[in-house]
Specification:
This protein folds into 2 domains: 10-79 and 193-253 and 356-405, 3-Layer(bba) Sandwich (FAD/NAD(P)-binding domain), CATH 3.50.50.60; 131-187 and 256-353, D-Amino Acid Oxidase, Chain A, domain 2 (2-Layer Sandwich), CATH 3.30.9. It starts with 13 loop residues before the first strand and ends in a 21-residue tail after the last helix. Helix 4 (100-124) packs across helix 10 (379-394). By secondary structure, the chain is an alpha+beta fold. Strands 1, 4, 5, 6, 7, 12, 13, 14, 15 and 16 form a 10-stranded mixed β-sheet that branches. Strands 2, 3, 8, 9, 10, 11, 17 and 18 form an 8-stranded mixed β-sheet that branches. It has helices at residues 47-58, 75-78, 91-98, 100-124, 145-157, 167-174, 192-205, 313-318, 320-334, 379-394, and strands spanning 14-16, 36-43, 63-67, 82-83, 131-138, 163-166, 180-189, 209-212, 215-219, 225-229, 234-242, 257-266, 281-284, 291-294, 300-307, 344-353, 359-363, 366-373. It has 10 helices and 18 strands.
Length: 415
């Protein structure tokens, strides 16, 4: 059976301009002139596809990567690249949904993913402005000191690192006025475009092929997957990895998944001494939440204002001036030292799930087609996790904990 994916324009993925977009390169991507075979076809050359391609090629697979657009031009350049191991859903919330042991295991695998990504960048010498960072999780909304202390106690029980700061401790250590916070080591930030480009270049060095093509249909009825291209040629692959951002083809559905719009700003480079201690990654214990990070140029990036009721691209992008004003107001309230000017403003769409966990694994009914979707606020962390899980599945080394992220997993309690 031939299965057609959704046809979504590149501009649907994001609007405006991020500071990363200035660094986009145009790698050599030949067009496909004849049908061929490969071990693994990766559909999508953004950050998820890049991580998957680099890892699979280094494992010795014959890898081909296709994308209909310039690599990194879509969702990747809209990413704010806060590489948190902490999940959009708190450990407390996940414990209510799935029980403590399962929730703690999920958090530990997320922590290991960030550690693995940092090690990969360091070992490969990938130039992407990656910097290890602490995270600062602030009280906000209905989550006060009591809730954060309970979260801290659960994390300690799960073997996760971090400290609880009361109001005085937070003011003393970070000069931030909130009731309380959790400060945790082990996160990072990076330039997502440079990271994606470096990974793709490494994959190509490992003999992966990067090609200009669009997949318009999938047929997995035989022992291989036949992928039909817009040119009329086909690629016969032993396995296919779908890494197309939030754009899910028709063969894949999930009641857990939804598309959300988000907005972000970047300030001009800040004066020396105008940034908070250690340039920690800051985010809030609320839903939706605002978040802040810095860049190597000492810009402040602030994002948030997520909205699942506004998904039409033109409506989302029309709100950029209004959302920028709101984000600048929140920045000024939280960190008055900042030069609160939006030099860059952008918007984007991303997929998320009702339990805050990604959809990673074999597509139900199509065991040779693997997918990675629904990253929420943990985009690149989950992209790395997906690259390792999918490679293990291709090698026949599925682990029991993979079920926690299965595409066809049951909905959580109360969802």
């Amino acid at each position: 059976m031939l299965l057609d994916p959704d046809n979504v324009r590149q501009n649907d993925l994001r609007g405006g301009t991020s500071p990363w977009s200035q660094k986009l390169l145009q790698p050599v991507r030949p067009q496909i002139e004849e049908s061929f075979r490969c071990d693994v076809l990766v559909v999508g050359a953004g950050i998820t596809g890049s991580l998957a391609a680099e890892h699979l090629a280094c494992l010795g697979h014959d890898v081909c990567v296709i994308d209909r657009q310039r690599p990194g031009l879509g969702s990747t350049t809209a990413s704010t690249a806060m590489l948190l191991w902490e999940i959009d859903r708190s450990l407390s919330d996940l414990t209510e949904m799935y029980g403590f042991e399962r929730a703690a295991s999920i958090y530990r695998h997320s922590q290991a993913a960030v550690s693995g990504l940092i090690e990969l960048v360091t070992t490969r010498g990938l130039a992407c402005d990656m910097r290890p960072r602490h995270s600062l999780y602030l009280t906000a909304g209905d989550s006060g000191p009591r809730e954060l202390l309970a979260e801290h106690d659960l994390r300690i029980r799960a073997g996760l690192p971090g400290d609880f700061l009361d109001h005085q401790g937070l003011l003393r250590e970070f000069k931030i006025h909130r009731e309380a916070a959790l400060v945790s080591p082990g996160s990072a930030d990076a330039d997502p475009v440079l990271l994606s480009q470096a990974l793709l270049a490494e994959a190509v060095r490992q003999k992966a092929r990067l090609l200009d093509a669009e997949a318009v249909g999938y047929d997995s009825s035989s022992d291989a997957v036949i992928v039909v291209l817009d040119s009329g040629h086909v690629i016969e692959a032993k396995h296919v990895v779908l890494a197309t951002g939030y754009v899910m083809p028709d063969i894949l559905t999930s009641d857990l998944h939804k598309v959300v719009s988000s907005w972000a700003i970047a300030t001009p480079p800040q004066a020396t001494g105008a940034l908070w201690r250690d340039s920690a990654l800051i985010w809030e214990a609320s839903d939706p939440y605002s978040y802040l990070r810095t860049t190597v140029e000492n810009r402040i990036i602030m994002g948030g204002e997520d909205d699942d009721a506004i998904v039409e691209p033109e409506a989302r992008d029309r709100l950029m001036p209004e959302k920028a004003k709101v984000l600048l107001g929140k920045l000024q309230a939280l960190w008055p030292k900042a030069e609160a000017i939006a030099e860059f403003v952008w918007s984007g769409a991303f997929g998320t799930t009702s339990d805050g966990l990604p959809l990673i694994g074999a597509v139900p009914g199509h065991p040779r087609i693997h997918a990675a979707y629904g990253y929420g606020g943990n985009g690149i962390t989950y992209s790395y996790l997906a690259s390792r899980m999918i490679a293990a599945s291709i090698a026949g080394n599925n682990q029991p904990w993979f079920d926690d992220f299965a595409i066809d997993r049951d909905a959580p309690k109360g969802s």
